[in-house]
Predict the 3D structure of the following.
Amino acid sequence: MIENKGSVIMNTKRDVLVSKNNKAIHKNNQKCIKCGYCINACQSMDILNRCKNLEELKEVCINCGRCTLVCPVEAIREKYNYQKVLKILASKKKVKVVSIAPAVRVAFEEEFGGFSNENKEGILVGILKELGFDYVFDIASGADLVIVEEAKELQNRIKNNEHLPMFSSCCPAFIKYVEEFEPELIPNLSTCKSPIAMFGTIIKTYFKEKIKVRASDIINVVIAPCTAKKEEITRSELNIAGVFENELGIHDTDYVLTTRELAILVKKQHINLKKIKAKEFDNPILAGSKAGLLFGSSGGVSESLIRTLYYDLKHKNLSKDKLVIKELRGSSNIKEYQAESLNLKVCAVSGLSNAKKILEKVKKGECDSTFIEVMACPMGCINGGGQPKTTMLNKNKTLKLRMQGILNADLSSNNRLCHENPFIKELYANFLDSPGSSKAYKLLHRTYLDKNTRSENEKD
Ligand code: SF4
Ligand code: SF4
């Protein structure tokens, strides 16, 4: 039984309902002990509040996976894809490509009892090679590409004074939230695909040319902190490589595995982490910039964007001492920064209940920010629905360590600007033409669907 009393749904049944067709979340009702933790998690994301009843939640679930983090008996978990990936790894037929999203490398070790504030990407590359992948790449390069395109898009919107403020578009849970509940704000969403979606398209167009295979010969896997990415990669408006390459029916990204699923794979394959040697990302993409890596933590998209916007508008890079914007760092859920030199204000918000407050301001015309970064998960992807579970006791400490791991990697690097990534420069010089070119728009930008236009078969 569920009742909507004003804006708050009172739960008396004490568990969320998940559709069998949900592409990201799986629920086993037989295991459920009706503890109510999943209801509270969903409530905290402002989703249940907006449903008339639990049946409606089955349709509008944004796949964020907050419920999977709190279920004490694994009755709710991500929809597993690791078994399919294991089968593919055992076959010799396909070229197996895998890429690592930013937040995975600061949390993965927790699944094996480790806690540290270090970026362990080298070890992860070693593990993925040991598992049998042919190429291991860095999704931070996809984030670099997003920033270069997004900076161009924002400049155009400012010049034409249209659809401002512009919202970031890299969080699929936020995108579905806007499509479902705030469709009038769809024009404010950046049209840039997410880093994973852009990267998938590049793998099956540009990279497949480099290694002289067909796009359909490649299986492209991503390790992500996120459950919502499992749904994102199925969306037809993001799968463009097959159209471009005239190989209809393929997906730009074939599988997303969560950080937890990667740990399952490692355990199933009896990989001894102590014997793994750190390795570098593969050619021709190599490691992304550490600005791209900042995407893993709330505020990071805004900070990276300012670095590249400054370069685009002033034709020189920000000096090293101005790269860190402390107002955009830390665990606060709403962070604002006035960039005087660029004459614009940015806002970074994480957690959908917090985002709702900002969206209300935008709708009333009371928001003075030009760019708004929204991450559905509190503190951003470091706290994603596919990350290792924490206890109530160590949650804050763990999230702080993950965030430090990302910020320290940026501080200690000389590679801190998305537009300076040599791979990105080569990509524009030899494939995409220039940021915002018609080819870049065709491959790297997207459209949106509101709930009235989404086809039945794309609904959960
Ligand atoms: S995935 Fe997110 S929106 Fe869906 S039921 Fe779980 S908490 Fe609610
Ligand atoms: S904040 Fe990150 S992990 Fe959470 S839903 Fe969005 S993209 Fe996924």
Residues 64, 171, 173, 225-226, 228, 375-377, 380-381, 384 surround iron/sulfur cluster (ligand 2) (CB under 6 Å). The longest strand covers residues 218-224. The chain has a mean pLDDT of 94. Residues 82-141+194-287+424-444 form a domain with the Rossmann fold fold (CATH 3.40.50.1780).
